[in-house]
Amino acid sequence: MRLPLLLIGLFVALAPAGAEEIASGSSFLSPEMRRQQDDPNRNPAWFWVDQGKELFAQKPATGQACLGCHADPATSLRGAAVRYPQVDGASGKLLNLEGRIEQCRVERQQQPAFGYESAELLSLTTYLASLSRGQPMSVRTDGPAQAYYEAGKAFYERRQGQLNLSCKQCHDGLVGQKLRGDTISYGAGTGYPAYRLEWNSVGSLHRRLRACSLGVRASQFDYGSPEYLALELYLAGRAKGLPGETPAMRR
Amino acid sequence: MPTSRRRERFASRAGTIVLALLATQAGALESYRVVADTITAPLGGKIGNVARGAALVRDRERGNCLICHHGDDPAEPFQGSIGPPLRGVGARLDTGQIRLRLVDMSRLNPETVMPPYFRIENMRDVAPAYRGQPALSAQEIEDVVSYLASLKAQ
Fold this sequence. Notes:
The complex is a heterodimer.
Chain A lengths: L1 H13 L16 H8 L6 H13 L8 H4 L3 H4 L9 E2 L6 E2 L1 H12 L10 H12 L15 H12 L9 H5 L6 E2 L2 E2 L10 E3 L4 E3 L1 H11 L10 H13 L9 E3 L1
Parallel strand pairs in A: 5-7
Antiparallel strand pairs in A: 1-2, 3-4, 5-6
Chain B lengths: L2 H25 L22 H9 L30 H4 L2 H10 L33 H12 L5
């Protein structure tokens, strides 16, 4: 009994993290949309980046501005976003970038949380993620993160909803196929927060996940829920090595 | 154990079983019998309507089949490329074969991507609005079956 288990464990440990190569959502855009995304003057998401940069420097009613603790963010926070989600040392909880920003806001600035999908949290997240553009995704999926990663993987692989489909069936099995007007990508999510034409706005990765859940008529989990956080970690782990692309544009 | 107590117990247990049966029947779908790769008899004895079936296949809220399949109308914008094209399906498959593939394709292919349109068991995390109901009713299945069976031209 023991030996086979041990062997399986070894195989899992030795298998390369990204056994198959995946590409980012940008490689599935139409050439015209790709050009628009890559032109800061035509990609509306840069407006959120600018707003976030302003907020970052703004002193709240109490406490310091983000900039007070994080001087020279273009250097000091470059590469920070691509290491999220990560397990928070103090609480042992999995935090994504949004969660870390809210934590700084509440605990260090002593201000009420902005709330998921608020204009403020979206612009700060988009701004911070934009500082890691081109940096390779490099979340940790071992140690304290491993249980979360495994939970996200199980979620990704199980059929769900009235249409009884898993994330994996679409985003591994049907990549490049047409689902109505959409071309199915690997579901890497490396451009989020992204500007989606359908939203006419920038939205978080969890908003995109809620859309996929709805698409298969499955329960939508809350923004920042443990289910989507674990899923986000799995997606980020699966996308290891791909460059951060926030702020991206999507259909 | 005295017989009377045993009988009491049995009676209460039988009560639970009857209740459980009632509960499953209230939410149960019309039953059907699979023969080879077909369901030969119409679900619930319903009679399908070709025009209603054509509308269901296109309807983005109900059948929404064109999200994955190319339909019979080349003018329809944005059709899917995931399942086999529906053109000529009535010549490839007979009515009973089409019915089973709509009801629960996973009986033929456990790995299938084609959703089960008439199944409520073994489904997980179904959104509250859809819970306990099949994606299409027996009547709707029969409508879609009639329409697909009419697509004979290749």
